[in-house]
Design goal:
With 228 residues, the chain is of the alpha+beta class. The chain is built from eight helices and ten strands. The chain has helices at 7-13, 97-106, 108-134, 137-150, 161-168, 172-184, 200-206, 209-221; strands at residues 18-22, 27-29, 37-41, 45-51, 57-63, 83-88, 90-96, 156-158, 188-191, 194-197. The strands form three sheets. Strands 2-6-4-5 form a four-stranded antiparallel β-sheet.
Length: 228
């Protein structure tokens, strides 16, 4: 996402950015937490999870190198609305919210990028609401794998069965059945904690319409940073 900014605007941010690695499963914030750090993923993927009072959870959006976690804090102090957890490990650039706000105040390009990113993320989240309610698990699983594939390097996604179940809001036995079906069709290879994508075109054919709708939204609003 930062590469979409003009060089002079990136130079304003550079002194405040630090590179860190995020391990799979790391909790970055929960609902109500003050957002004091903003993350710009390079090759990691972060899931935004909507939590229920009974402990149930489901993914509402995914953030990768096209965007940033906590970017709304660039505008003003904000509290997190969802749980943010690292879905796929990798590297990220991190900046404290206060200096990011100062650059946002000075940079028209950053203000525009923040606005477009927030619109794209909102579109992603509301599409997920409809998808989770209306579409079959197999189609949603394909959509989810494709969205993750867009945001990583390579064709291997390292995920546990439990994590996949949380992402999709289903039982682990359902994940096993769906993954087995996709494997029998030659679309993926599923091992304990690992999904290898073998046939992306086949996954796209089986995914619900929401994959294309979300992707088109990012391509329209963030054309320079969504390069999946």
């Amino acid at each position: 996402m930062l590469s979409a900014l003009p060089s002079e605007d990136r130079a304003l941010l550079a002194p405040h950015l630090s590179a860190i690695d995020l391990e799979k499963g790391r909790l970055l914030h929960d609902p109500g937490d003050q957002i004091d750090q903003v993350y710009f993923p390079n090759d990691c993927v972060i899931s935004l999870m909507t939590l229920m009072e009974n402990g149930a959870a489901i993914e509402s959006a995914t953030i990768g190198r096209e965007g940033a976690l906590g970017l709304m804090a660039a505008v003003a102090p904000r509290q997190a609305l969802s749980r943010a957890i690292v879905q796929a490990p990798g590297s990220t650039l991190r900046i404290a919210a206060a200096p990011l706000h100062e650059v946002w105040r000075r940079s028209a390009a950053l203000r525009d990028l923040v606005d477009r990113h927030n619109e794209a993320l909102f579109g992603h989240a509301i599409q997920s609401v409809a998808c989770n309610a209306l579409h079959a698990v197999e189609a949603r699983f394909c959509r989810w794998l494709l969205g993750c594939h867009d945001r990583i390097d390579g064709n291997t996604v390292n995920l546990t069965q439990e994590f996949l179940a949380d992402m999709l809001g289903v039982q682990r036995t359902t994940v096993t059945a769906v993954a087995g079906s996709l494997q029998s069709k030659g679309l993926i290879r599923y091992r304990r904690g690992v999904v290898d994508i073998l046939d992306r075109d086949g996954l796209e054919a089986m995914a619900c319409e929401c994959y294309g709708a979300v992707r088109r939204g990012y391509e329209r609003l963030l054309p320079a940073s969504f390069a999946g």
